[in-house]
Amino acid sequence: MPFTDILGQEKAVSYLKTLVQNGRVPGALLFYGPQGIGKAKTALEFAKALNCQDPAAQKTGESCGQCPCCKAISQHTHPDVVFVDFLYQARLEVKKDFSSSGYEEELENTLAKQQHINVDTIREITARSQQKAIGNGWKVLIIDHAQTMQAAAANALLKFIEEPPAKTLWILITNKRAAMLRTILSRCQPLAFAPLSRQHVEQILSFNQVETQYPALCASYSGGSVSGALKSDAALALLREADFGANGCSPQGPCAVAAGLSRSLVTARQEAQNILDVLVMAIHTGWVNATDESLQHRFAKTLQQFENYKRSLSRNVSPALIVETALMSLDGLPLSLFNMENKSYD
User: Fold this and answer.
1) Are 337 and 239 in contact, with CB atoms under 8 Å apart?
2) N or C: which end of the chain has fewer CB within 10 A?
3) 329: exposed, middle or buried (C-beta count within 10 Å: 0-12, 13-18, 19+)?
């Protein structure tokens, strides 16, 4: 995927192309912005541009996408480009060989438990950062979910991002910049990534052949994020399957939606979060468009209630109970839940 295929991030891409052309790359970059807007893909494309073997492509700040280095980075097999995320960490923790019996099941179970980038993972990647590069290109070490690094992990990383070896680049990716240690932030050059427009979300879903039941609608509820669009699509499917329609709450609707949640507590909690997020956006739109003062007040009060419901999800409260209660609170509220296609995030 060349830079030209990364939609909605023209400013960030332009800056990175300039770095490639000038050859003046900082030792550490911080890619920050909402989740699901292309930060990780841009980081990998930047690694390709730095290591591309086509001189003509490098002059433009791009990658050719066809040379052995570009193909290896796309396939996550390049020895000098490491992408650290929860899957990478889970693979480190599963000691079995990937061809062993039961490996995939153990990996899936381990991955489901991942919440933080831990110190052992950081020690492993910092050790790799000190190894001599295989080729003459750049060693690029990318850490996704960087805001989840435990204090010990962040401290273990400090000296390595402060003075990396020549032609070594660290890229930290986060959707919660404020949650990161100031000592880490002070050692990274920040690069902001913007939320995507509704049109860009739709284009990306189409380009990647992602099947959604309500393409335009879930893009409207996406919050400018591809992952947000997918979560919204799943939430809308649950609501519509339970006959929770555009005119608010039918008598059986709340109970039916709650009954449709997964039996797995972890999955049910995520499904409930997605439903609440969609409803909050619809309620906010209703508040913005309401012309009657009393109706505006009710929308505002409902928004406050939903923030309490969302907080309850992080506690030991049944997701089904929260969803049912939240939907019942919408009774009589003129909510245009399935009529959001014209909402945009430009």
Assistant:
1) yes
2) C
3) middle
- Provide the terminal-to-terminal Cα distance of the chain, rounded to the nearest Å: 23
pLDDT in tens, 42-73: 999 999 999 999 999 888 999 999 999 999 99
Boundary-marking domain end, from 192, 208, 238: 192
Element (H, E) at 277: helix 265-289
Q: What domain count does the chain have? A: 2
- 148 and 266 in a single domain? The answer is no
Q: What is the pLDDT of residues 301-332, one digit of tens each?
A: 999 999 999 999 988 889 999 999 999 988 88
Query: CB–CB of 261/235 below 8 Å?
Result: no
| Calpha distance 96→118 (Å, rounded) | 20
Domain that residue 295 falls in: 198-328
204: left (phi over 0), alpha (psi -120 to 50) or beta: alpha
